TrEMBL record:
Its biological purpose: Excises uracil residues from the DNA which can arise as a result of misincorporation of dUMP residues by DNA polymerase or due to deamination of cytosine.
SMART domains in the record: UDG, UreE_C
Domain Uracil-DNA glycosylase-like: 53-213
Family listed: Belongs to the uracil-DNA glycosylase (UDG) superfamily. UNG family.
Organism: Xaviernesmea rhizosphaerae
Recorded superkingdom: Bacteria
Record protein name field: Uracil-DNA glycosylase
EC supergroup of this enzyme: hydrolase
HAMAP family: UDG
Subcellular location: Cytoplasm
Lineage: Bacteria, Pseudomonadati, Pseudomonadota, Alphaproteobacteria, Hyphomicrobiales
Gene designation: ung
Length: 232
């Protein structure tokens, strides 16, 4: 997308056709025009593909699918549901932590920085990878959805089974083509305060994911976050 943008090599190879497609050229031109117009785009360019950089394709064990990056100052850094160290924990992540404590007995972290998960094989993927500051959903329909569909297809085609954690109808529809005979698909309500009490709490996605991984000969995820995360 620009010289500052990085992309891990396994993903670069898997997605080469996407980058060569006209829709990605159009997306790049859109982002450049927005920046030239003085608009602030989150996350910064080097972090557009942070989720892919931290979780190489063949290392993916779990996918947690979000929708858009946070649009507040200093929040988004390329991982779904995650915020930088020192940033207030968003309400949905507060509820994710509550469910994790109920499920695994892990006390809620005092920060919202989820890179520890990503480095273990949890692909924290948003459907749309950029947003304009203070303008929610402003980059929907610009091409990112097609790109992240290709990311999900690549994971779906992996030779090993993967856990897809799909919170809310948007994520469930987007990943509706995932092969449920090979992969574990966990569907529930979204952890947003608007819906968490209507089918999110009590679903135990973290223990279910780990039980599946262990049953298929893979190392489980250590969901407990470090108390003092390294800065993004």
């Amino acid at each position: 997308m620009s010289e500052a943008v990085r992309l891990e090599e396994s993903w670069k190879a898997a997605l080469s056709q996407e980058f060569a497609s006209p829709y990605m050229t159009a997306l790049k031109e859109f982002l450049q025009a927005e920046k030239q117009a003085g608009k602030q785009i989150f996350p910064r360019g080097a972090e557009y593909f942070r989720a892919l950089d931290l979780t190489p394709l063949d290392a993916v064990k779990v996918v947690i699918l979000g929708q858009d990056p946070y649009h507040g100052e200093g929040q988004a850094h390329g991982l779904s549901f995650s915020v930088r160290p020192g940033v207030r924990i968003p309400p949905s992540l507060v509820n994710i932590y509550k469910e994790m404590e109920s499920d695994l007995g892990i006390p809620p972290a005092r920060h919202g920085f989820l890179e520890h998960w990503a480095r273990q094989g949890v692909l924290l993927l948003n459907s749309v990878l950029t947003v304009e500051r203070a303008s929610a959903a402003s980059h929907q329909g610009k091409g990112w959805e097609r790109f992240t569909d290709a990311v999900i297809r690549a994971v779906n085609s992996l030779p090993h089974p993967v856990v897809f954690i799909l919170w809310g109808s948007y994520a469930q529809k987007k990943a509706g083509f995932v092969d449920r005979e090979r992969h574990l698909v966990l569907r529930s309500a979204h952890p947003s305060p608007l819906s968490a009490h209507n089918g999110f709490f009590g679903t135990r996605p973290f223990s279910k994911a780990n039980d599946f991984l262990v049953a298929h000969g893979q190392t489980p995820i250590d969901w407990r976050l470090p108390e003092a995360p390294a800065s993004a």
